[in-house]
Amino acid sequence: MATVSLKKLTKRYGTMEIVHGIDLDVGDREFIALVGPSGCGKSTTLRMIAGLEEISGGTIEIGERVVNDLPPRSRNISMVFQSYALYPHMTVRENLGFSLKIAGVAKEETDRRVAEASAILGLDALLERRPSQLSGGQRQRVAMGRAIVRDPDVFLFDEPLSNLDAKLRTQMRTEIKKLHAKVKSTVIYVTHDQVEAMTLADRIVIMREGYIEQVGTPDEVFKRPATRFVAGFIGSPPMNLHEATVADGRLVFSGGGSLPLPGRFKATVSAGDKVVFGLRPDDLYPVGHGLQSGDAADVHELELPVTVTEPLGNETLVFSEFDGRDWVSRMLNPKPLKAGDRVAMSFDLSQAHLFSAETGKSLRT
Amino acid sequence: MDANASARLKRRIATVAHRVGLFLAMLVICLPGLWIVLSSLRPTVEIMAKPPVWIPQQVSFDAYVAMFSGVGKGGIPVLDYFRNSLIISITSTVIAIAIGMAGGYAFARHRFRGKSAMFLGLMLTRTVPGIALSLPLFFVYAKLDIIDTHFGLILAYVALNVPFTIWLIDGFFRQVPKDLAEAAQIDGCTRWQAFWQVEFPLAGPGIASSGIFAFLTSWNEFALASQLTRSINSKTLPVGLLDYTAEFTIDWRGMCALAVVMIVPALLLTFIVQKHLVGGLTSGAVKG
User: Fold this and answer.
1) What's the domain range around B187?
2) Tens digits of per-residue pLDDT, B224-234?
3) Does the beta carbon of B284 lie under 8 angstroms from any beta carbon of chain A?
4) Coil/strand/helix, residue B80
5) Boundaries of each ABC transmembrane type-1 domain copy (chain B) (predicted)?
6) Residues A346-356: pLDDT tens digits?
């Protein structure tokens, strides 16, 4: 097992720079998720680590060995592709054993390791089938089995679950987590799905347009987003984010509506500052239907008209209008509401976030 | 119920019409072949008869016997022609496939400057009729002194086939997902191994069918061969057909018999290879 270290890693296609000198250290046996919208450079970064894409600058170290110019086969990695990339002309057994055959491993040893991997992933009954005879979830498992058999230093996953339906995705997510607990290896996992990233990873790397926006544990990126982008990207439904101006100890929104400036930001902003106010749906709820996280003095109440409700059974997402815009809130222990109802809403400002309108950086102290 | 019954009736009528249409189409396609076989078995009088005699009155293998009985007894050096055809077609096909694989792979997998222009250029060579090239080719070959040689004809056929095989094989390599070669590289293959272990087996059926096309083109080509060959050193079977034309007569029966001799190996080859052209081999490689 090994650490992975990226230093000033850059990728250019001609004059276009896709990845702008990123730095990242992945610990031994750590599960890291690279997450971001499409085109943010996460897949390119993974492919550079795999050696499938040449790097334009910087260094990549795997297990304290610089691998910049080594071909993929010399990096001792394995990769699970979004498309699974199973060899269609080989049976599951041959697919699993292919890397060992290429490496010239003895047949008994190959058989033993294939049997081991197939036992871990429950593939025993499928060994003689070809990929075309397998379902999506089974192909996914074979792809993972092929990665395990190699006993690599680092596992790379490139959006492995995005071709599966929602139910199977949840199931496979759990399997990947169990698998990591079993094989205890360093994992770099690329996904555009923040739920996958949050549930699987020890640390999450949020990327945007070729830069790293924030690196942190799921808890950190959720509770203390470093930028407006991270705040909007992590969490479902997304955080309410609205621009406001600081005036007289209040946050005045563009439509004229205002909220008190949360106490903890009083030292960091001054009158006239343009900021972005952020409040998670969990911290905005009809009075009595949410969990108050901070001081009662920080809870601000307003009566707002409901525009849309989305019942989810155990909770309801309530969209209500404030300052001419929809704010989404999460109502626990829901009661029936309909559009047009006026409801008293609690704004738990102890949990509010402020970002600079100019730089997008968090203004937390 | 009525609506169902009429829908069922309509579907049946459509099926029957479909089959009748197919039968007529196949008849049009197969009739010339059948006519050649029939004509090789009956006397010239019957072949030339008007109105045509559909059912042969006298069937004999005289034409075949005569063909193989040697020069002077109504025969032609058919074995020499056959050997020439075989050597020239197989060699030119192997070379065209080798170049086609390299070229097709490059076009399918790599980006390089002038790629589309080059590809278009290759296709444009196909627009020039071979016969238009035969005179200049004749002069060039005469200067190089390669008229009436296997080498000369092989060279011409390779040039004729390469654009087409590149174009076909490019398409087949495109169908093999790039991910597979990358997965193989991660699994420890070199670029070369990844090609032979994964991409080649998957594109194999396509390459085989390109091979059939190239072989048949060379096997059946007449226009260039008739210009560039002179004697039994290099004359191919299609050119051999001309041996049946004399100044005032044409031996239609003999010609048809030779045509059958030409068709049989091509037919056999196609039949053997097409069994290996298993379609849909790549299904299941990617996605669900």
Assistant:
1) 78-274
2) 999 899 888 88
3) yes
4) helix
5) 82-273
6) 999 999 999 99
